[in-house]
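Entry 14. Ran structure prediction on the chain below.
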Amino acid sequence: MNEAFFATWTPRLLSLLRIIAGYLYIMHGTAKLLGVPHVAMFDNLQVMSLIGFAGILELVGGALILIGLFTRPVAFILSGEMAFAYFMAHASRGSTLVPMLNQGEVAVLYCFLFLFFAAAGAGPWSVDAMRGRRPAAA
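Output, structure tokens:
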């Protein structure tokens, strides 16, 4: 494979990665706020709680990431949410900061995935890209 192949497919795969990440992230929000898919620990979740607020960020932020709208600032906020979630919910378990031992791998992975999107942007298959192609107003 040559450089032209990678130059062509890297931006497209960035978009695909963003779309899949957004879709998966939306499910975290729907599980918390709508009960779909059902996760027993979210039964009787109060929307006006820290976990409820996280669900709102996941649902709304995940949808914006999915379509690629305001990707950089939204991804930066979601990266912070996941860093916060890691230290609040996972690193506080026991005396270890090792994600494999405190079940924090997903939080760490999302944190750095969203940090990557904050730096790299949405890719060509996004609302952000379509908005950038508009002709300038006269």
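The longest helix spans residues 3-33. Will compare against last week's run tomorrow.
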